[in-house]
Amino acid sequence: MSAYPSLFQPLQLGALTVPNRIFMAPLTRCRAGEGRVPTALNAEYYAQRASAGLIISEATVISERGNGYPGTPGIHTDAQVKGWKLATESVHAAGGRIFLQLWHCGRVGHSSLYADGQPAVAPSAVRITRGQAATPTGPQPHETPRALELHEIPGLIEDYRQGALRAQAAGFDGVEIHNANGYLLDQFLRDGTNHRTDAYGGSVQNRARLTLEVVEAVTSVWGADRVGIRFSPAGVFNDMHDSNPLATFSHVLKELQRYGLAYAHITEVTAQDIAHGAKDGVGPRELRPYVNTNLVTAGGFTAAKASEYISEGIAEAVAFGVPFIANPDLPERFRRGAPLNEANEATFYGGGREGYTDYPALDQKQTNH
């Protein structure tokens, strides 16, 4: 008998019935192969974690222009589809379920990541003032992005639709639209980064327009019951802010109610966020009234806190990040109340097997590679 029975109740997640409420959060690991093609090592990593109620893949770029970091995977070439197929087949063979997270980095990108050497695109020419850009030659200062022209936006939406189609071809069970963490859709949604004066800027209705048009395009491929969307309403990562986050995010969530998505994934404010200037008071608890589907949350949860959120009806499932990096069998550890492996932060981004596929399950001895 688990100490946390609410975590092990099955859940109807749109078209899927999942066996538990312990999801694997999308985790950038920067280990794709040449051409941003997933490899057999990536397939092994995901298959090890197939006991999650749902695996949400690492963020995966929908176009070359969507790139923001070296070593992240794509879903815009045939070779990438083939690479991802290795992962989906491995997860399914291990009894799991996996959604692909569709991603465009927007202004987070750097000219050195693109064949044409041009700057990254964004809603407005507003540069990131914190931190540095990740480039193939190491950290560099962020560049001022180029504001997308109005005539380019239909092509961008089509890139999301094509990414959704390719995700189907790669054998995923559904997709999650990445509308969080200061990437392109989040940049359009929040007024700190969207200074446009056309149909995609100004009012919250206009700032939410691109999100809703992307949802329209992606659900036209998958059906809404195999699509989720992720938001980070209080997040400040990538130099993000909004003058009225509760108004912004409650508006977009109310607009999404008509689609009947499988879930809305809304991150909790973490202590790290607050240390970087985030304000508490706009997270899953405050936004729950505007969500008429499953609410998935994430952000520094323990099994006990996850169980509490589910029991209270704040969320239907909780996604775990770092605990899933270090514990391929996380649900079983929670079930038994077993200790967790310690995560090695030095191996989070980039590298090979170490800190990736060599964390032991409960019934394995630690092996050295």
Break the fold down into its secondary structure elements and pairings:
Layout: E1 11-13, E2 16-18, E3 22-24, H1 40-48, E4 55-61, H2 78-93, E5 98-103, E6 121-122, E7 146-147, H3 153-169, E8 174-178, H4 184-189, H5 204-207, H6 209-222, E9 227-231, H7 245-256, E10 263-267, H8 271-275, H9 284-287, E11 294-298, H10 303-312, E12 317-320, H11 322-326, H12 330-336
Parallel strand pairs: 3-12, 4-5, 5-8, 6-7, 8-9, 9-10, 10-11, 11-12
Antiparallel strand pairs: 1-2
Characteristics of this structure?
eight-stranded parallel β-sheet, 12 helices, 14% strand, alpha/beta, TIM Barrel, 369 residues, globular, two-stranded antiparallel ribbon
How would you describe this structure to a colleague?
This protein is an alpha/beta fold and 369 residues long. The protein has helices at residues 40-48, 78-93, 153-169, 184-189, 204-207, 209-222, 245-256, 271-275, 284-287, 303-312, 322-326, 330-336; strands at 11-13, 16-18, 22-24, 55-61, 98-103, 121-122, 146-147, 174-178, 227-231, 263-267, 294-298, 317-320. It has one domain (5-347): TIM Barrel. An 8-stranded parallel β-sheet has the order 3-12-11-10-9-8-5-4. Strands 1-2 form a two-stranded antiparallel ribbon. A two-stranded parallel ribbon has the order 6-7. Helix 1 (40-48) runs parallel beside helix 2 and helix 3 (153-169) runs parallel beside helix 6. The protein starts with 10 loop residues before the first strand and ends in a 33-residue tail after the last helix.
Write a short abstract of this structure:
The protein has 369 residues and is α/β, with parallel strands linked by helices. 30% of the residues lie in helices and 14% in strands. Strand 4, helix 2 and strand 5 form a beta-alpha-beta unit.
